[in-house]
Amino acid sequence: MAPHIDDALLDDTDELLRKDSLKTLRALATAGAQTREAVALTHEAGIDRLGRLDRPRSVLVAALGGSALVADVLELLAEPGSPVPVQARRNLPLPGWVGPLDLVVAVSLSGRAPGPLAVAAEAARRGASLLTVGADDSPLAEVSRRARGVHVGTGRGPRANSRTALWSLLTPVLLGADVLGLIDCPDRTMAEAADRLDECAESFRPSSETFVNPAKLLAVQLAETVPVVLGDGPLGGVAAARASSMLARTARVPAPFGELPDAASQIVACFDGPYTAIGGRRPGTYDERRIRLGDIDTSRWEPHHFDEPEGELMERRRGPGEETGDLFADPYLDTAVPPRLGLLMLRDATADPPSRESEESAALTDAVLQTAREAGVRVMERRAAPGAPVVRLADLVATVDFTATYLALGLGLDPSVSPHVADLRDRTR
Question: For 294, left (φ over 0), alpha (ψ -120 to 50), or beta?
Fold first, then answer.
């Protein structure tokens, strides 16, 4: 059975805010303001000093948990044209090749996360350049100052946790990479990202009713499914990783994720499983011929394709109530109905002008979606509006952040407080 989501609660603004104990929705709505504040704090911290240094041989980014997306985004933006490699590292050991010619970026909202703090300390010991982002009165800030690195504080706005402070943590790193010539992300681009985040916050505001609020609508749809998240390319893949993390940590809903084209086969294979209209069959009973992606047409399938009697096949195709002919059958009382597989496709903006690569990518995405629909998967799509890469990413990230938070609240959960996470912390101290 799918979990029950309270639709009425999602449209009760007062009750939403009451259940949101650490004001997660409010913190997410400040993402645009976080970005603008972070731009100012970054320049006050002296980010231009990085430009006076020799270009580093490599850049290593240390970030954990809700901050981990910072490394993913920098890798995404640097990959097409960066003259130096960019790598992510969650914890020690620091690679042996890191030394005075390299730049290490360490990110932690509290400035006390063991992994980034240890990486920064070891990098400083080896003489590497440092860029750190976190609380001003923290061990991470102290490590950076002693090593004569650049430390950027995170301001004083409402932050429930690192998941809701993403843009305070990400902005200084992107501006630093721009100063070094690794990516093209100047102040004006971050201002555009801030504007896009404001637009999303307005569209996803708690007072906006479900039928006109894309994030609330997605939350309701996801609650009725076993969700899988796909990105249609590198940018969508980063957003899909964020969606999986937010659904798990905020809404307590596990959601595998992937990026096309690599993840096409493993995700499409799920369409044969027990959570789709054509799934749930005994293994090995259908025709094993290789069917090209996008050519699946269930309307042409015959019983012999499954090696099952026609009656059994048709019975499997019927929905709740249709099996017995009783239109008034209660699927929750009269039969065990597994939740339906749901595919959330996060799509980048349409390329303008289109290229052969973008057309091939769009064709594969459309084929996956067609295959999903024919298999009985519930398909949900979100496409970013045009803009610079970080602006398009802001569009998708804001969508999944608000969606996961509304899903948690609709399921009766506090998006910021997990008793089991608290228990785990107590047991590992």
Answer: left
